[in-house]
Amino acid sequence: MNNKQETNKALKALEQLGCMVFNMSSDRRMPPGMIGFPDHCIVSKHGEVIFIEDKFGKDKLSKEQVGVRGIIETCAMMNPKVFYYINTGNIQQIVDEIIDRIK
Question: What is the DSSP string of the chain?
């Protein structure tokens, strides 16, 4: 199983807990307003909004992704229900932490 498959499998656990899981990553070009947006957006039934950016191997955040990350982290400082994670192959740890937060 590759990293994308592992990530999608792990995120299914959040769907089973009633979360909406949006997969924004694709091989298609993103519309201009979406460039830099994280690969996954999860909304829990309790109002938490979680963003996950996938970065595997030597992959690094683009300039646009760094900008979006800064905006999301600023929102997170003002709203305790907003979270941002970078998945470097540690998706199960991230999902376990999210499950602990939303229970």
Answer: --HHHHHHHHHHHHHHTT-EEEE---SSPPPGGGTT--SEEEE-TTS-EEEEEE--TT----HHHHHHHHHHHHHHHH-TTEEEEEESS-HHHHHHHHHHHH-
What total of structural domains would you count in the chain? 1
- Which structural domain range is residue 83 located in? 3-102
CATH label of the domain that carries residue 37 = 3.40.1350.10
Query: How does pLDDT run across 53-67, given as a tens digit for each residue?
Result: 999 999 999 999 999
pTM: 0.92
